[in-house]
Amino acid sequence: MKLYFVQHGLAVAKTVDEKRPLSEVGLNESSKVAIFLKQHNVKVNKICHSDKLRAKQTAEIFSKHLNIDNIVEMSGMAPNDDPGLLVNDLLEEQGMYVGHLPNLQKVVSQLVAGDQVREVIQFQNSAVVCLEIEEGKGRVSWYVPPSMC
């Protein structure tokens, strides 16, 4: 099973807008990465995102460029949510999960290293990590940050 994890695009500061929408850089970088994935024929069946505006906007950008109609808000993906909530709900083959740190970091660490504290990859805004999961154990297949696109 392939799963994709995306840290939301760069957002404006809370002092600028409490809802923290994506900044111009966040919009552009998320689009660049999404276009790169499309050009490399990455297939995504469903996109799940947290209830935060910046994650929703990032998910919508990926949805648009990858032609995905199946996009849903999902609980358990907020920055400080228990990573176990998301790990238990990862059943969607080729599902993309757009969220936040430290939650995503801990989810990926749990899936790859069996330990939420062990850092297995350093996330960046708008970057995508692909995990391949076999028999409950994950491995990093590839990682695409905006600087590669």
Automatic annotation (TrEMBL):
Entry superkingdom: Bacteria
Pfam families in the cross-refs: His_Phos_1
Matches recorded under InterPro entries: His_Pase_superF_clade-1 (IPR013078), His_PPase_superfam (IPR029033), SixA (IPR004449)
NCBIfam families linked: sixA
Protein name: Phosphohistidine phosphatase SixA
Organism of origin: Spartinivicinus poritis
Lineage of source species: Bacteria, Pseudomonadati, Pseudomonadota, Gammaproteobacteria, Oceanospirillales
